[in-house]
Design goal:
By secondary structure, the chain is of the alpha/beta class. It is 40% helix and 18% strand.
Length: 437
């Protein structure tokens, strides 16, 4: 085994200087709270959303707080040539870790799906009950699920890592990095800058590399590299998709249709491939964290629309790349779709585990963008991307409120933050940028 590559990727072990990523993610705090627990921690998410940066932050936290010394922290990046040799079998790894010394050891394995049988490999080590804490990352939920799910049942906690949320993105904007607590009295002082930030976020999205790049041309190049890497490694490499042009065309069509009802047969006819292939490709896009599928809310199937889903891209920058459009949000016709997609990602990211996110639409065309519900709807959200001069809601939204009476009825817009009563229901208008915080 060549120790050189290992040492270069573990600079804390040799005393070399190393940089800790400065975008502190909200999920990092959750992970810190699990470092004392026995479960294996798995960070699952798309490529380049910041999983490795989070590992570095955890490593820095462990040393900075004095939990363990640098010699007790081992980081294996399986994307690097030669590193997999350290994990060829459990005995070799345990000898390399010097596990017989009975000390607390933290083992970080990046891109664990590159192991032939990662679930079985880690399970055998975990079941030895040694003082070793495993923190793993993987880039495909299909890969991680199929290779770790059954062997690690009852032994793991999975954390889904996404690109930067808008609230995380705002902290990278110098003028907004120290926002006070906002309320209906002071928000007008900041809403202009927040809306500017939301437009930028809606253009380039939340992948850390483009976010931390100032030059617009380089932002696009880095976004394109992320998508190309995704196609090469996840789609062609792991999922063995051979018709990459058709896969790209489907992504482009879905980006244009974002927020609209998805007709599988229509997509198949347009691209010229079987509907079963379209269904499979959409499944791949969803399982590799590129899109989110929104299904309709049903109570009476005879009066509410069919099972056709809506699809939103998980990241606005990736959606704009798929459709090839990066003009200013103030001048384009699909700004509403972009903002709606950002709200969809926010709703999925922040819902309670027991809650689901749907849309509501009747055969007559009455529609509400997002419904968050448990046993029954608890929150309804309608998105208006433009300036709102007064609080008014559509006839369809009134119909939904009368039928379901959710605890909260929200009308997102760019300017107004206030409440009013409409047809016996409290409706709160909130600027979208503030809602996303």
């Amino acid at each position: 085994m060549d120790i050189t590559t290992f040492n270069l990727s573990n600079p804390w072990r040799t005393g070399r200087e190393w940089g800790v990523p400065n975008i502190w993610r909200s999920v990092t705090r959750e992970l810190v709270n699990w470092l004392d627990e026995p479960e294996i921690l798995i960070l699952s998410g798309a490529r380049q959303v910041g999983k490795t940066s989070i590992l570095y932050q955890l490593i820095d936290w462990l040393m900075r707080t004095g939990r363990v010394g640098p010699e007790n922290i081992y980081y294996f990046n399986l994307d690097l040539s030669g590193i997999s040799e350290f994990l060829e079998d459990q005995g070799s790894l345990l000898r390399f870790l010097d596990a017989e010394r009975e000390r607390n050891i933290f083992v970080f394995i990046d891109e664990v799906q590159r192991l032939p049988d990662p679930g079985i490999f880690i399970k055998a080590l975990f079941d030895l009950r040694l003082p070793i804490k495993f923190i793993l990352t993987g880039s495909s939920s299909l890969d991680i699920r199929t290779r770790t799910h059954e062997p690690l049942t009852g032994r793991k906690q999975v954390f889904h890592i996404e690109a930067l949320s808008f609230s995380e993105y705002v902290k990278t904007v110098p003028a907004l990095s120290s926002l006070p607590a906002l309320d209906t009295q002071n928000y007008s002082l900041y809403i202009g800058a927040l809306n500017d930030a939301l437009r930028d976020y809606g253009l380039y999205g939340g992948y850390p590399a483009p976010v931390l790049t100032d030059d617009p041309e380089k932002k696009l190049l880095r976004l394109n590299e992320i998508f190309s890497s995704y196609l090469e490694k996840d789609i062609a490499g792991f999922l063995k998709v051979e018709n990459i042009p058709a896969f790209r065309k489907l992504a482009a069509l879905l980006s244009v249709q974002q927020g609209g009802l998805v007709n599988i047969q229509e997509l198949a006819s347009t691209i010229g491939i079987h509907r079963e292939t379209i269904t499979r490709y959409i499944h791949y896009l969803e399982e590799t964290f590129v899109i989110k599928r929104l299904t309709p809310l049903f109570s009476n199937p005879r009066t509410e629309l069919s099972k056709m889903p809506k699809i939103y891209f998980a990241d606005a920058g990736m959606r704009n790349l798929a459709m090839g459009g990066f003009s200013d949000l103030r001048t384009r016709s699909d700004t509403g779709k972009i903002i709606e997609g950002i709200v969809a990602s926010h709703a999925f990211r922040n819902r309670l585990p027991s809650h689901r996110v749907n849309y509501w639409r009747t055969k007559s065309g009455a529609e509400v963008d997002f419904i968050i519900s448990g046993i029954k709807p608890v929150q309804s959200i309608e998105v208006k991307s433009g300036i709102l001069k007064q609080i008014t809601i559509s006839r369809g939204y009134r119909s939904f409120l009368s039928k379901y009476s959710p605890q909260k009825a929200i009308l997102l817009n760019s300017t107004i933050w206030s409440e009013t009563e409409i047809a016996g229901h409290r409706v709160e208008a909130i600027p979208t940028a503030i809602f996303l915080l």
